[in-house]
Write a structure and sequence with these properties.
Elements lengths: L3 E7 L21 H19 L3 E9 L7 H14 L1 E12 L8 H8 L3 E7 L3 H6 L6 H14 L2 E8 L6 H14 L3 E6 L7 H5 L6 H17 L3 E4 L2 E3 L6 H7 L3 E5 L4 E6 L2 E6 L3 E5 L1 H12 L6 E2 H8 L3 H4 L2 H9 L3 E3 L3 E4 L1 H5 L1 H8 L1
Parallel strand pairs: 1-2, 1-9, 2-3, 3-4, 4-5, 5-6
Antiparallel strand pairs: 6-8, 7-8, 10-11, 11-12, 13-15, 14-15
The structure holds S-adenosylmethionine and iron/sulfur cluster.
S-adenosylmethionine binds next to strand 4 and strand 5.
Length: about 350
C-alpha cells in the first residue's frame, strides 16, 4: 500500500513576518486545548471516511506548530495512532521557529513522539534576519540548531536566499556555514514577494531573474559536492533523508489535512476528493486530479512515474499531456521523456512554471 500522510496545521504565530503569505494568525490568547480537542474530533471523522490505513507520516506545519505544548502534540499523535495504524517507522515532523525555543522544548517534543524537527532559521546573518522581520537573532537560531542536533537524528532547516541586496559571494559564505551544520535535509527558498504582504506594500523587489538563476545553479553545485541530493525545486537531502511526508504530496498520494489552513486529498472508492476545514469535501474529476499531479510531479527531479500517474488519477499520462509541447521541450533540453517517466532537467527547473503551462 502506498504512503499515507496526516498534515496537522497550527495556524498561530507570535508575529507576522513581512514576506509571508501563509495562512497564519497572531493572537494574544487562544484556547489551545479546545482547538486540539476539535482537531481530535476531525481525526476521528476522517478515519471513518478512509477506513483503517497505515499512516506513514504526520507533519505538524504552520504557522508555528512549536507554539503547541508538547502535551498537545502527544495527544494529537495518540489520536492518529488510535484511529488508524501508525506505521512503526512513521516519520513524525514538526516545524519550529527559533523564537519559541525554551531550554527543554526540543527534548520534550522528542519525548512526545516527534522524530524529525524542521527549524525555520531563514538566515544566519543578523542584518538579513532584521530585513526579513524575524524576531530571533542569528545567535538564537544557532542555539536552537544545537538543541535540534542534540535531540533529533532526523532534522531539517529552512533558509530564504536571493534577497534583494544579496551577492553570490555573500550567499556562498552562508551556504558553506549551513553545510557545516551537518543537517540531514535543507529547504532553501528563493525570496518571493507575494501580493498583500508587507514586502509587496513596501515595494520590495526580489533579486533580478538572471542573478537569481546564477545563485540557484551555484547552490545546487555546492550542495551536491557537500553530499546533498537536489530532489525537489527547493529541497536538498542527504541520501535517504528526503521528506517522506512531502513526497506523498509530490507523488500524488493520499493525505488528510487537519486544521484551519489545511487541505487534504483522498481517493475513496475510486473517486477523488479535495478536503478543507472543517471536514468539507469536494469531488475532483480525473482531469483535475491529473493536472495537480503534473504540477506536483514536475517539481521532483525523479519526475513523474507514468504508471503511478495512471494509478493516481486513472488517466494515461501520454494522452493527457500536450505531446507536441513535450517533444519541443525535450529537444530544447528542458525535459527528459522515457516510456516510464517524464523528468525536468536542471535548466528546466529554472523555468518550471512556463514548462507546466505549455504541457497543459
Ligand atoms: C509556513 S513557514 C513555517 C516555518 C515557521 N513558521 C517559521 O517561520 O520558522 C515555511 C517556510 O516557508 C518559507 N517562506 C515563507 N514565505 C516565503 C517567501 N515569501 N519567500 C520565500 N520563502 C518563504 C520560509 O522559509 C518558512 O520557513
Ligand atoms: S514565516 Fe513562519 S513565523 Fe513568519 S508569519 Fe509565516 S508562518 Fe508565521
Amino acid at each position: 500500500m502506498s504512503d499515507f500522510g496526516i498534515y496537522i496545521h497550527w495556524p498561530f504565530c507570535k508575529s507576522k513576518c513581512p514576506y509571508c503569505d501563509f495562512f497564519s494568525r497572531v493572537r494574544k490568547y487562544i484556547d489551545q486545548d479546545a482547538i486540539v480537542d476539535s482537531y481530535i474530533e476531525d481525526i476521528a471523522f476522517y478515519a471513518q471516511k478512509t477506513g483503517l490505513r497505515s499512516v506513514t507520516s504526520i507533519f505538524f506545519g504552520g504557522g508555528t506548530p512549536s507554539l503547541l505544548s508538547p502535551q498537545n502534540v502527544e495527544r494529537l499523535i495518540a489520536a492518529v495512532a488510535r484511529n488508524w495504524r501508525l506505521a512503526p517507522d512513521a516519520e513524525i515532523s514538526l516545524e519550529a521557529n527559533p523564537n519559541t525555543r525554551s531550554n527543554t522544548l526540543f527534548a520534550d517534543l522528542r519525548r512526545a513522539g516527534v522524530n524529525r524537527l524542521s527549524l525555520g532559521v531563514q538566515s544566519l546573518d543578523d542584518a538579513e534576519l532584521r530585513f526579513l522581520g524575524r524576531t530571533h537573532t542569528a545567535a538564537q537560531a544557532m542555539q536552537s540548531l544545537e538543541d535540534v542536533l542534540k535531540n533529533f537524528d532526523n532534522h531539517s532547516a529552512d533558509f530564504i536566499y536571493a534577497l534583494p541586496q544579496q551577492s553570490l559571494q555573500g550567499w556562498d559564505r552562508s551556504l558553506r556555514q549551513i553545510l557545516g551544520l551537518g543537517l540531514k535535509h535543507l529547504s532553501l527558498y528563493q525570496l518571493t514577494v507575494e501580493e498583500n504582504t508587507v514586502f509587496s506594500k513596501k515595494g520590495v523587489r526580489p533579486l533580478n531573474e538572471e542573478e537569481a538563476a546564477q545563485i540557484y545553479l551555484s547552490t545546487e553545485e555546492v550542495l551536491q559536492k557537500g553530499g546533498y541530493r537536489h530532489y525537489e525545486i527547493s529541497n536538498y537531502a542527504q541520501p535517504g533523508a528526503e521528506c517522506r511526508h512531502n513526497l506523498v504530496y509530490w507523488r500524488g498520494g493520499d493525505y488528510v489535512g487537519i486544521g484551519e489552513g489545511a487541505h487534504g486529498r483522498l481517493r475513496i472508492g475510486g473517486r477523488f476528493f479535495a478536503t478543507t476545514h472543517r471536514c468539507r469535501s469536494e469531488e475532483l474529476s480525473a482531469a483535475e486530479r491529473a493536472e495537480e499531479l503534473l504540477l506536483m510531479g514536475l517539481r521532483l527531479r525523479e519526475g513523474i512515474d507514468k504508471q503511478r500517474f495512471y494509478r493516481c488519477c486513472g488517466l494515461e499520462f501520454d494522452a493527457f499531456v500536450n505531446a507536441e509541447a513535450v517533444k519541443e521541450l525535450v529537444s530544447d533540453g528542458f525535459l527528459t521523456d522515457t516510456p516510464q517517466s517524464l523528468q525536468i532537467t536542471p535548466q528546466g527547473l529554472l523555468v518550471s512554471d512556463k514548462i507546466i503551462e505549455e504541457l497543459l
